[in-house]
Write a structure and sequence with these properties.
This protein folds into 3 domains: 184 residues, Rossmann fold, CATH 3.40.50.880; 190 residues, HUPs (Rossmann fold); 102 residues, GMP Synthetase, Chain A, domain 3 (2-Layer Sandwich), CATH 3.30.300. It is 32% helix and 24% strand. Strand 13, helix 7 and strand 14 form a beta-alpha-beta unit. Bound molecules: xanthosine-5'-monophosphate (XMP). The site of xanthosine-5'-monophosphate has 17 residues, from helix 10.
Length: 511
């Protein structure tokens, strides 16, 4: 199965996972207290215990099942994981309120396996308060820093390792080598996580799961649903029913573009449904972001159920496929108990009593992996390079209440923004760009008259997978042109802002 990561709430758990996948090995995150039988069944080649914010001696300190240590699997504890191994196996951790933080020098004492290929001294990155003062029996020290004598240890017989520092962050100069040593030398993993293999495995898995049953998939202007649909189309062709619902929250020209693209890509059963009124009526007066997301998610499902009642006169539909990807689940806190919920991605906010069985072919993949899978499936380049567009559409970019007037304004602004980015050859360099309409108005002047109009915020971010993001440094002359065009061409807007917030602490979308 690859490497199982038990998450004790570290902000770096996902970085560990990414690093391992980048090295060509599958890895999956589990809550720290995952049922041991799940791990036994998956039979991973190795286990990593992540870091975490808690102190090991707090009453509420997170603990995994102790039986994990006698599974006979190689284990690597990182930071909190290192201390947990110590505590559980009989060593001693000293409480400390003083933090050792930042870049430190690790003096390496043993280069046999975990530290193979490293120099006598290496830069590592620390972030801890408590420290280990006595290793458990059977453990030997592999490296020390000035402040932390037991910065790394090993039990050769049990293949249990611990490091107090973070090999997954780029500030640890040989961090990747350390992880490589763990997964290949110690766990004997094979390099099998390539996009070609992912495709092959997904096809086999879906074939088994779906058999000869009908599958319904809701498609949108986004890449995730397109890649999921293309994958399913390859496997079940005639039995796949694509439903494209116009919820009234699509971008300018999106309806036309999506319909023509799916036709060109050879999808046989493509159904378009105009449900604008249904959605917009339900959203009338709703301002709370989570309620908006839930209403949209539930209305989609209701629409699907209604549509299938007609379809089922011809064909039995058992499954509903969704383009959910890994970060959607992370931010809806479906992957880990120790993570907090940031927002409910609409794919995941399903009513409890639902008629369909859900399949989510892309649920383990990050956005960049989905794009690579899209290329592998020969989805046209211009579609793979399209910016992500969220399921709830413009609803989460219109802060506050949604009205026809606001939707119209936002569509026009967004389309000018994107058009200018394309003209200036910036679209492909930016990970995602869009406009959002703020729920306040500002005073302005047009000709000789006072105006009291909407404020627009433009957002363009650089990212790798949407989990973190930086704002794009669009040249000022381009921003100037965009602002001028918006203020001149879109009625109802008298102020344009450019959002320079990073994620975190902001998110990419506004709601
Ligand atoms: P946030 O706002 O969470 O966005 O930083 C990260 C990425 O996810 C997209 N996003 C969604 N996609 N359904 C989706 O299919 C959703 O409910 C949803 N919410 C956010 C967002 O556009 C960005 O690319």
């Amino acid at each position: 199965m690859g490497i199982a990561i038990l998450d004790f709430g570290s902000q770096y758990s996902h970085l560990i996972l990414r690093r391992i996948r980048e090295l060509g090995v599958f890895s999956q995150i589990f809550p720290y207290d995952v049922d041991i039988n799940i791990i036994k069944k998956l039979n991973p080649e190795g286990i990593i215990l992540s870091g975490g914010p808690a102190s090991i001696y707090e009453k509420t300190a997170l603990q995994c099942d102790k039986k994990l240590f006698s599974l006979g699997k190689p284990i690597l504890g990182i930071c909190y994981g290192h201390q947990l191994i110590t505590k559980e196996l009989g060593g001693k951790v000293e409480r400390s309120d003083k933090k050792e933080y930042g870049k430190k020098i690790l003096e390496i004492k043993d280069k046999k396996d975990l530290f193979k290929g490293l120099a006598d001294q290496e830069i590592i990155w620390m972030s801890h308060g408590d420290k280990i003062i006595k290793s458990p029996k059977g453990f030997e020290v592999l490296g020390s820093t000035k402040e932390c004598k037991i910065s790394a240890f090993r039990n050769s017989e049990k293949k249990i390792y611990g490091v107090q520092f973070h090999p997954e962050v780029s500030h640890t100069s040989k961090g990747t080598t350390i992880l490589k040593n763990f997964i290949f030398r110690i766990c004997n993993c094979r390099k099998e996580w390539t996009i070609k293999n992912v495709k092959k495995e997904l096809i086999n898995k879906i074939k088994k799961e779906v058999g000869n049953e009908g599958v319904l998939i809701g498609v949108s202007g986004g890449i995730d649903s397109l890649v999921a649909a293309t994958l399913l189309n390859k496997i079940i062709g005639d039995k796949l029913y694509c439903i494209f619902i116009d919820n009234g929250l699509l971008r300018q020209n999106e309806k036309r573009e999506v319909i023509s693209s799916y036709k060109k890509l050879g999808f046989k059963n493509f159904n378009f449904v105009n449900a604008r009124e249904e959605f917009l009526n339900k959203l009338k007066g709703v301002t709370d972001p989570e309620r908006k997301r839930k209403i949209i998610g539930h209305t989609f499902i209701k629409m699907f159920e209604k549509i299938t009642r007609d379809l089922e006169k011809r064909e039995k539909i058992k499954f509903l496929a969704q383009g959910t990807i890994y970060p959607d689940r992370v931010e809806s806190a479906k992957t880990s108990k120790s993570a907090s919920k940031i927002k409910s991605h609409h794919n995941l906010t399903l009513p409890k009593k639902m008629k369909f069985q859900i399949i989510e072919p892309l649920k383990e993949l990050y956005k960049d992996e989905v794009k690579r899978l899209g290329n592998e499936l020969q989805v046209p380049k211009e579609w793979v390079s399209r910016h992500p567009f969220p399921g709830p559409g413009l609803a989460i970019r219109i802060l506050g209440g949604i009205t026809e007037e606001r939707i119209k304004i936002l569509r026009e602004v967004d389309s000018i923004f994107i058009e200018e980015l394309r003209k200036n050859k910036l679209y492909e360099k930016i990970w995602q760009a869009f406009a959002a309409l703020l729920p306040v108005k500002a005073v302005g002047v047009m000709g000789d008259n006072r105006t009291y109009n909407y404020i627009i915020s433009l957002r363009a971010v650089l990212s790798r997978d949407g989990m973190t993001a930086d704002w794009a440094k669009i040249p000022l002359h381009v921003l100037e042109k965009i602002s001028n065009r918006i203020l001149n061409e879109v009625k109802g807007v008298n102020r344009v802002l450019y959002d320079i917030s990073q994620k975190p602490p902001a998110t990419i979308e506004y709601e």
